[in-house]
Automatic annotation (TrEMBL):
Keywords in alphabetical order: Cell membrane, Ion transport, Membrane, Transmembrane, Transmembrane helix, Transport
The protein, known as: Bestrophin
Main location: membrane
InterPro entries: YneE/VCCN1/2-like
Species of origin: Bordetella genomosp. 11
A single cellular component GO annotation: plasma membrane
Keyword Nucleotidyltransferase carried by entry: no
Transport is among the record's keywords: yes
Subcellular localization(s) per the UniProt record: Cell membrane
Membrane topology of this protein: Multi-pass membrane protein
Family: Belongs to the anion channel-forming bestrophin (TC 1.A.46) family.
Superkingdom of source: Bacteria
Transmembrane segments: 20-41, 47-70, 229-259
GO terms assigned for molecular function: chloride channel activity
Amino acid sequence: MIVRPKAHWFRMLFAWENSVQNTILAPLAIIVALSLAAVWGYRRSDAFFLCLSPVPFSLIGVALAIFASFRNNACYERYWEGRKQWGALTATTRDLVRFAVTVPRHAGASPPPSDAHPQARHVVTLLTAFVHVLKHQLRGTDPADALRALVGDAQAGEILRLAYRPHHLLLCVQRQMVRWHRDGGLSDVLLATGLAHLDKLNQAAGACERIRGTPVPYPYEVLLHRTTYFYCVLLPFGLVESIGWATPIVAVFIAYAFLGLHTIGGELEDPFGQDANDLPLDALAVHVERAMREALGDDAWPPVPVPDARYRLD
């Protein structure tokens, strides 16, 4: 995700870093070349065979803009839902940390307020591992190093052999809650409350997996991609008769708008990826871990994530 201070309106006109220009620079260069070819051909001969009427481009442009807006709305809805689910996941994990640290009664143990019972500490560690493992699963990366640092080599090896690792970590937390209940540390009502929080985590993880596993239908993507590029390639030949030497400027400006919207929609379609405009899952996971370690009274916290020199927060 790009996180940068608001720039002056004039500076925004020339903003280049982390914008879509880098992605669509090659297609725009092709549009410039085609525009110059159209102007050259039209000036050399009035019967230039690719001098087209601008009327169809007006009609197609309106339809294409509506079509592109529908796709971008669908992609942004996926991004927005992913952000909401991670917000719910963050709040629920904090609730569960407070629950594990303060609610269960541990037989024969009276830890000071600045400390936590080893069983509660283990639950918090499992919840931290759950957040990191879910992040890696959504991004398709390897969680081995994060797991080993949190739960040790033995348990990490056991978890890495599984297909649904976040679900297994929630299962471990639920088993600990059930043990607390059997030992008299949790009443029936408190057990139900803890399990309800686990259900919320499971629902948030399932929603994220649904977004990750069900992209925008492929024929929908292909149709818009072909239509956009075909329209932008032919546009200079529909403008050259009416605007002449201004064709390269106008054609590139219109192509920039359509191709830029198309590129942004493609990035937002998978909000859990590692593109510049995707959700900063690394930073979100670290913030959750910091909140958990603070609840445990630990002094060693991971550093606060900050954007890099290019204003990018991963």
